Amino acid sequence: MVTAFLSYRHETDAHRDSVRDLGWLLEKEGVHVVLDQFAQNREFNGGGPDEGWPRWSKEQAANSGHKVLIIASPGWFRCYRGTELAGAGLGAAAEAGVIEQRLYNQRGVASDIRIVCFDKVDPATLPLDLQRYHRFDAVDDAAAIVNWLKGGIAATSAIVSGWPDEAPHLAWPMADHTEARSAFAGLITRGSKFRLLPVQGSSETGKSLLTRQILGNALRMPGLACGRMDFKGPADLAGQAINTFVQHLGVAAPPASLGLTGQLSKIMTDLAGRAQPALLVFDTFDLAGEAERWARESLLPWLMRAEWLRVVIAGQAVPRFHGEAGADCCAPTIQLQPPAPEDWFAYGQEHRKPGLTLELVRQVHTLCQGKSSLLAQMFGPAA
To answer: For the chain, what is the radius of gyration of the CA atoms?
Structure first.
């Protein structure tokens, strides 16, 4: 997901609000925006960064993973030139100095820095070494800004505006688990009575296959933000697992320094800023550790007001939410049972050549001790 850092000078309240509105516009088009106004609420809870704003500003401006949009204004250009009044515009000056060095290091050929104007700008008023770069009009060129940020992927406004009245056709290549399928179909509709679906089952009942199929169906719903986290995955949950989780959520992976629950909270805050339909799938939740407390204390309250949010939690044991804020948003727990040989026979008939018999399936079922992971490989689609 592309990230844009907005560098600007606090000229007036109106100017600051215009920058914020531009940030919202870009995020609605799937761009992750780094902006002090957003970070103050989303990451720092109103208290600012621990390292202080000057260092934070310089780190964002120096981050090679960020494309930079310079918000044109006389004050920002004074900061860039070093002619601003002493003690004024310190944050913009810190950013401008780093941006100048980036341009210098790139010999002036900048593929990741552009200028955005809210008002008409006389090119002659720009610093001489910035006059060569293209300038976008913040209003008239909004689609072009997104197109440039995304590297030629035009703005599509593909994010859906609401849950469908009826669930789409669900691809469900699994043996049995029709109760879970029906519950999930209801969960992803506008009129759903619930926003969290708990699914519980012992080992080898097909929970992980189920959550992968749920994610697969969500990915087929145009514009739906969705992500799946498996807590039995890599030990480095603050790293690769989080990156995988946010891949189709349309938000950036939070820094590992926040810790797992801090990262999850940051993801929720970013999703809430967009308030578009999102599905979160958590597998092997019995191994979630500190994340279970986060689910009780943070996720449930979110669900009370977040009509845009749906959650599936699966595990050998799933939390029982009773008497807690948001508990009424939870559907009754689906208790998975191992599919019987008859279920695997019906499943196998869908994927194998004629000749498969129920007796053969029963024999294989016995030899495999009913393990869903093995039976799914034997009777599922050919590789």
So the answer is: 25
